[in-house]
Amino acid sequence: MPYKAISDIGEFGLIERISKLVQPTLAGKPALVKGIGDDCAVYRLSETTMQVATTDLLAEQVHFDLLFSPLRHLGSKCISVNVSDICAMNALPSYAMVSLAVPSSFSVGMIEELYTGMSQAASEYGLAIAGGDTSHSRSGLVVTVSMTGEVSAERITMRSGAQPGDLICVTGTLGGAAAGLKVLMREKHIMLEHISDNEPYSNSIIADLEEYRNAIRHQLLPAARIDIVKFFHERNIVPSAMIDVSDGIGSDLRHICASSGTGAIILESRIPVNPQAREIADELQEDVITWSLAGGEDYELLFTLPPESACSIEDRRDIAVIGEITEKETGILLTDIYGMTINLSDLAGYDHFRR
To answer: Above pLDDT 70, what percent of the chain?
Structure first.
């Protein structure tokens, strides 16, 4: 067969090709409302209830580094990133299945620590870990979590419902996870340099990271915004479109616009930047807005609302209105603090396969 590198088409190009190949399998499955192309697949359980399903794979040295990721934190994160996908459909989680590929060098205690984190997170989100699979790994720890959730048919929210004039909103603050990762990577390199220089082991090479606690927590222990979904249900708010912020709002907003057939414009001055991320960016002489737009792993919710629904979120200080959905011809734009317009199509989010 002809050779074409995956890096030439990137992660989303690969997903598009896979989607075309599996399309024939969808024939005769009328209860499947949505397959590939959203945060979750959507299946109609009944006239009134939708089931959503998602899966995420986390691989050592790709998604996490055990030199600075405690196993209990990692277990919690594995659950949270899946719950975040469920929340992006305006649904609540029900069940999870966990599969592990484990190196033989791991101890029983290490796996127990991993599952302790998973169990604690599952309890907080109100879901059950119902089973899974285990295997040997020759190249590092791999964790795969599959999860289901449910939502009433009138509340299901996908990426494809945004309309010109809708408000673009985001929860929480952005850039914290990217800032935390920058700090952890810096400290890892410092530690490895000491080791490579054959210096005697000393506590002096172990940094006190307390001042970076907030940002590091965003990286190692993200929390899915199930509180926002419960708020929506209490207020009978149904966003017109929604996605979780896993790759950065620049990239994730493009997914909403591509699915909805629209454009968008957001204002830099309204982007809720994590305060500690701003401090760390100044310290490292990097751009905090780039972290907020393309850093990823914040696991906040990016959603759109008809303007007449704006009053329903006014009392939530952790929701910011950052822009507006426009006609497709407008493109996807950012207006910076100097009034300059930047094309967000030029700002790539995280892509597993791009060089």
So the answer is: 94
Topology of domain 159-181+214-346 in CATH is Phosphoribosyl-aminoimidazole Synthetase; Chain A, domain 2 (3.90.650)
Question: In the chain, at which residue ranges do the beta strands (DSSP E only) sit?
Answer: 32-34, 41-44, 49-59, 92-102, 128-136, 142-152, 167-171, 241-244, 263-267, 301-305, 319-326, 332-335, 341-343
When pLDDT is cut at 50, 70 and 90, the band that residue 316 belongs to is very high
Strands lying side by side in the sheet with 319-326: 241-244, 301-305, 167-171, 319-326, 263-267, 332-335, 341-343
pLDDT digits (tens, 9 = 90+) for 24-48: 898 888 899 999 999 999 999 999 9
Query: For the chain, which residues make up each domain, given as ranges?
Result: 31-152, 159-181+214-346
Integer-rounded Cα Rg, in Å, for the chain is 21
The one-letter amino acid code at 221 reads: L
Structure-block tokens of residue 31: 């209860």
Token pair of 249, please? 């709002």
Of 5 and 115, more confident:
115
Supply 157's token pair: 């929210």
Number of other CB atoms surrounding residue 98 within 10 Å: 23
Kind and range of the H or E run holding 342: strand 341-343
For residue 121, the surrounding DSSP H or E stretch is helix 108-125
31-152 and 159-181+214-346 share one fold: no
Distance in angstroms (rounded) separating the CA atoms of residues 222 and 2: 41
Q: 117: closest CA among 206, 214, 222?
A: 222
Alpha-carbon distance 28 to 37, whole Å?
A: 19
> What class does CATH assign to 31-152?
alpha beta
Nearest-10 Cα torsion for 38, 85, 10, 255? 50
Mean pLDDT in residue range 249-258: 95
